[in-house]
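=== RUN LOG ===
request id: a7f3
mode: sequence -> structure
chains: 1
length: 344
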Amino acid sequence: MNILVTGGAGYIGSETVRALLRQQHRVTVLDSLEYGTAASLAVEAGLPPELVVGNILDRPLLDNLFKTHQIEAVIHFAAYKRGSESVRQPARYFLNNTAGTFNLLEAMVAHGIPNFIFSSSGSIFGNPAELPVSESTPASPENPYGLSKLLVEQALPWYEQAHGLKSISLRYFNAAGASPDGRYGEDWNLSHNLIPQVLKVALGKAPSFSVFGTDYPTRDGTAVRDFIHVSDLAEAHLKALEYLFKTGRSTVFNLGTGQGNTVREVIQAVKQLTGSDFRVYEQPRRPGEAAAIWADNQKARRELDWQPRYTLEDMVRHALQAANASIMPPAASSSSPASRATDG
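=== RESULT ===
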C-alpha cells in the first residue's frame, strides 16, 4: 500500500513509519522539520522513506504530491501539541492543527484519496467528570490544543457524508518511551514530554525539574496521566489502517493503557532506574491542564485486536537506552524546565 505520513519525521510519526516499512508498505513522509528530523527516518535495512519537506498549509505542494504519487491513504500526525502553549498562542494551534488539516482533507478530496487516519488526542476530554474515559465520554477540552483536535473529529463525518472520505480518529493519551531496541527515541532537544524532561535532570543534562501543580485532587496531589508506549501507538496505527481497508467503517478509538500514573510516580520511576536523587521544585498549577485522565481502551482491544504491551517502567528504561545511544549537551543554565502533564 502507498501511504503518505504527514509529520512522519516526528516522534510518533517516525516510529509508525518504521512499522509501516517493516510491513512492506511504500511510505512518503511530508514534514516541515520544525519538530522532526530527517535523521529520525533511519531504518534497520534498505532505503529510508522519501521525505518531502513542507507544510500541510501549502496547497500547491499537496496538489503536486498527490499528482505525482499514487497515494492510497494518509496517516496524519502533523500538529503542534503543547497544551499550555496553546493557551498563550491559540491562533497558532487553530491555524496549523485545524485549518492545516482541513487544507489536507480538501486536497485529498480533490485527488480522490478516500482513507484517512487522524492523530487525535485524549486532550479533547478536558477534565472529565468520570474515569476512565470511553469513546462516548463527552468532549470538553480545557485548552485550544484539545479543541483544535476535536474540531477536526467533528468535521470528519461531514467529509464522509459529502465526499465519501473514510476516517479513523485515534485518541491517544501520553506518548512515552522509545523503540525497545534502544535505537530510536525522541529528540530531547525538541521534546517537552514529561519523561524526557525528568530523565534529562537525572542524567545531569538539565539543571532542575519543576512540577506544576501539587494540589490536584489525586492520590499524591500531582496530575494523573495515561502513559502509552510509542511502539504500542505505532502498532495501533497499522491496525487502524488495516481495519479501515477491511471494513470501510469510520470510527474513533481511545489508545491508552487503561490506567493512570501521577507525575510524582513518573519521577520516582526515573529515580529508581537511574539511581539519581535529584531535587524537584514545586510550582503552582498552569492553566489548561486537567487534574486526571486515563483511557478506557476496551473498544480498541476488541475491534482492532490491539493491546498495550509495555509498562511505565519499560517506557522509562527504553527512553534511557535511546538517550544513552545519543549525545546530549550538559546543563548550561539555572532555569527550571517545565514539567508537562499533557504530552499527547
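=== NOTES ===
The two ends are 27 Å apart (CA to CA).
Residues 327-344 have pLDDT under 50 and may be disordered.
=== END ===
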